[in-house]
Amino acid sequence: MGPAELVQKISIGAESPRGSESGGAALAGADGAAGGSWRHKCAAYVLALRPWSFSASLTPVALGSALAYRAEGALDPGLLLGSAVTVLAVHGAGNLVNTYYDFSKGIDHKKSDDRTLVDQILEPQDVVRFGVFLYTVGCVCAAGLYAVSTLKLEHLALIYFGGLSSSFLYTGGIGFKYVALGDVVILITFGPLAVEFAHAVQVGYLSLTPLLYAVPLALSTEAILHSNNTRDMESDRQAGIVTLAILIGPTFSYVLYTVLLFLPYLIFCVLATRYTISMALPLLTIPMAFSLERQFRSQNFNKIPQRTAKLNLLLGLFYVFGITLAPAGALPKL
Q: 236-289 pLDDT, tens per residue?
């Protein structure tokens, strides 16, 4: 075989469709695996954030902004968006801190609601890095809010770092969750504090009014945590930690959950009858509350925190609509 024929044979072999297809298939397979791995990783990060719980931070921001709108007659969409991203970032980071410390203390197991680290979906260092990233995002957003808001730096820092510290110390550091103080932290952070933050950023000053209007929403938000702790009562006791649900036992846990569910509706009834009918809008969610009460009473805790979070979101949205639709001067202190 001469040199010319050899070159021609090699050329034909290189251009063979079969060879091209096999090489292309291998390359496509590698790209597909990489793409699938990346998508799986992103999905794991999203699940680790427990997005179903974000109603606890979004509704207070919406409520604080609605109160600012009623008080000032105007609303800055940019400040609203910045407040929402800031609070969501801190909330998400707090959820990751909770995941990390629950796993480190051996609280999470194969039957836990959060199995991000138990099932090795993510590594502990991944959770730590993501948490640091989200806290950084929150700080950057808070700095941006200071740049465009008229709120004093010391007031913004007081509220923001108060919320950030609470989100970390819930399970990190002191670990309020493990000494039956987690309910108090959540009640304050995802109620009055978040509402005050969103309101103050809009109006440029601190006020007691948002703290009072935050009470119904704070009670509903606490119901999410209490249902979660009641469901995990046995596993938490075995892990050696103490929650409010463990301290008061199953019967009083049911009583407390019922109070947290229905007391907001009593407040809305008072507001609707004494001030404006628009405050009756949250009452549309009462059927959901009765359904949750029956499920809790039957001790069927499957997905009950998620269902309570859904109620919290709808109740909060109707509450915001009620305040927004209220005639000027109809509500007290607005």
A: 898 888 999 999 999 999 999 999 999 999 999 999 999 999 999 999 999 999
Work out the number of other CB atoms within 10 angstroms of the CB of residue 240.
Answer: 10
Question: In the numeric block, which tokens belong to residue 48?
Answer: 């680790």
Question: 208: left (phi > 0), else alpha (psi -120 to 50), else beta?
Answer: alpha
Dmax over CA atoms of the chain, in Å, equals 104
- 172 pLDDT band, cuts 50/70/90, is very high
**Predicted TM-score of the model (pTM):** 0.84
Inter-residue contact 108 to 115 (CB < 8 Å): yes
Give the C-alpha separation, 316 to 178, whole Å.
Answer: 28
* Residues 290-322 pLDDT 10s: 999 999 999 999 899 999 999 999 999 999 999
C-beta of residue 326 within 8 angstroms of C-beta of residue 290? no
How far is residue 96's CA from residue 79's CA, in Å, rounded to a whole number? 26
How far apart, in whole angstroms, are the C-alpha atoms of residue 88 and residue 113? 21
312, 221 in Cβ contact below 8 A? Answer: yes
Q: 24: which residues sit within 8 A by CB, 6+ positions away?
A: none
d(CA 78, CA 100): 33
Structure-token pair, residue 47: 């699940």
**pLDDT, tens digit, 9 for 90 and up, residues 187-234:** 999 899 999 999 999 999 999 999 999 999 999 999 999 999 999 998
Which residues have a Cβ under 8 Å from the Cβ of 220 and sit 6 or more positions away?
260, 261, 264, 311, 312, 315, 316
pLDDT value of residue 36:
61
Tokens 């606890």 correspond to what residue? 56
